[in-house]
């Protein structure tokens, strides 16, 4: 680089650079190892569609796709994250493709915390409908490597089975026609997308449940779970009738819509983590997704309709139920969370358990709702790499099945 700059300075000083001559000379100065490492290829990587991840890519001299994922950054912090990847490889059917992905040096709560391990997976689809989960290798430089054969001219690759804004819109359109449900717009995201609350059941039912999904853009598992839950509650079968006699459900299904639309990993469009800073009211401009949720909650509380339980559904590589442990007497809350945990174990494939007594993550929705609003709340993490209880890597169908079973959990929780 130094030599390149010096050469340019000399050329400028001598007045030797002019017109197209500049471009030729500069190109000649690009270090050989870099220029040679970019090969022409009959493989193209498409990142220009809904929820595709921003990514720089090249084909190296061995013909492999090398994708440099783009970090999602938090405002005024060191935190950055890459968990989401979603792109389309285009090549002739039968082509053997090797992909190397890099930039997994995440910073979480101000410390390095890469999720990349031998347990990491990717999902692949040749029609963006039927997905399969496959294993990966971790190669030096904390990079992910995997190979596959093109079974069609297009191969969609993603970190988890994608759930896009358009998938949500399809569900909302179905719900809109159902007498048991209603969709209300409560505000707008930073980029102006609408934020909806879905209500399922009778507003005057004895108990109320609030669910939020997709505060973090890559965590599609929460949306698939909501799909399954909505499907069950609107099935109008005997179980669904029994559930809705006891409780009414309110759902904010996709808090971080902007991040989902843009194929980002974690933060909202302003670099705000929607599962942090719940110890105080959110700023309307920087975090409208949280601001409008809180406005709606305050309205519910004023109308004597405070939720009796709130769950914030996420994805991580652990799969635990994150119990809040603020200072003060939380004996009753902990007893209720014990009950929730045992019901999850009994009625669903959940086996990962609750976080230990030493675990605290202040500022999450779980802790903020409990301390500021008096709502019993927890963060429910779904392991996006492996479901222990099923002994398999998760696909959308598994999370939908979890969503189908959750209403039974809440029925007994509210007993
Ligand atoms: Zn999350």
UniProtKB/TrEMBL annotation:
<dbReference type="Pfam" id="PF00246">
    <property type="entry name" value="Peptidase_M14"/>
</dbReference>
<feature type="domain" description="Peptidase M14">
    <location>
        <begin position="161"/>
        <end position="415"/>
    </location>
</feature>
<dbReference type="InterPro" id="IPR000834">
    <property type="entry name" value="Peptidase_M14"/>
</dbReference>
<protein>
    <recommendedName>
        <fullName>Peptidase M14 domain-containing protein</fullName>
    </recommendedName>
</protein>
<dbReference type="InterPro" id="IPR050821">
    <property type="entry name" value="Cytosolic_carboxypeptidase"/>
</dbReference>
<comment type="similarity">
    <text>Belongs to the peptidase M14 family.</text>
</comment>
């Amino acid at each position: 680089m130094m030599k390149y700059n010096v050469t340019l300075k000399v050329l400028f000083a001598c007045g030797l650079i002019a017109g197209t001559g500049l471009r030729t000379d500069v190109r000649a100065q690009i270090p050989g190892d870099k220029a040679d490492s970019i090969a022409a290829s009959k493989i193209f990587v498409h990142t220009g569609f809904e929820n595709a991840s921003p990514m720089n890519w090249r084909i190296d001299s061995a013909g492999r796709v090398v994708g440099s994922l783009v970090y999602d950054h938090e405002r005024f912090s060191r935190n950055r994250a890459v968990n989401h990847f979603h792109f389309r490889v285009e090549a002739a059917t039968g082509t053997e493709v090797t992909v190397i992905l890099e930039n997994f040096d995440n910073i979480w709560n101000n410390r390095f915390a890469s999720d990349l391990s031998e347990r990491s997976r990717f999902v692949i689809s040749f029609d963006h409908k039927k997905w399969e989960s496959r294993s990966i290798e971790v190669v030096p430089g904390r990079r992910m490597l995997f190979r596959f054969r093109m079974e069609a001219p297009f191969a969609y690759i993603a970190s988890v089975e994608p759930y896009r804004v358009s998938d949500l819109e399809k569900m909302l359109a179905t719900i809109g026609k159902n007498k048991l449900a209603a969709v209300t717009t409560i505000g707008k995201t930073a980029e102006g997308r609408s934020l909806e609350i879905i209500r399922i059941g009778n507003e005057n039912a004895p108990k109320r449940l609030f669910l939020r999904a997709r505060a973090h853009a890559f965590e599609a598992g929460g949306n698939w779970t909501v799909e399954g839950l909505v499907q069950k509650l609107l099935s109008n079968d005997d179980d669904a009738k029994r559930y809705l006699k006891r409780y009414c459900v309110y759902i904010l299904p996709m808090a971080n819509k902007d991040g989902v639309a843009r194929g980002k990993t974690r933060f909202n469009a302003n670099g705000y983590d929607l599962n942090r800073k719940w110890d105080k009211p959110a700023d309307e401009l920087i975090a409208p997704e949280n601001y409008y949720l809180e406005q709606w909650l305050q309205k519910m509380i004023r109308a004597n309709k405070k939720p009796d339980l709130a769950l914030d559904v996420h994805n991580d590589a652990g799969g635990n139920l994150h119990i809040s442990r603020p200072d003060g007497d939380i004996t009753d809350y902990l007893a209720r969370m014990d009950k929730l945990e045992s019901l999850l174990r009994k009625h669903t494939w959940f086996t990962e358990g609750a976080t230990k007594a030493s675990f605290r993550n202040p500022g999450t929705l779980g802790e903020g709702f409990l301390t500021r609003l008096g709502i019993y709340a927890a963060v429910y993490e779904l392991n996006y790499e492996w479901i222990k209880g099923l002994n398999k890597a998760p696909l959308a169908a598994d999370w939908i099945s979890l969503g189908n079973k959750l209403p039974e959990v809440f029925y007994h929780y509210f007993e």
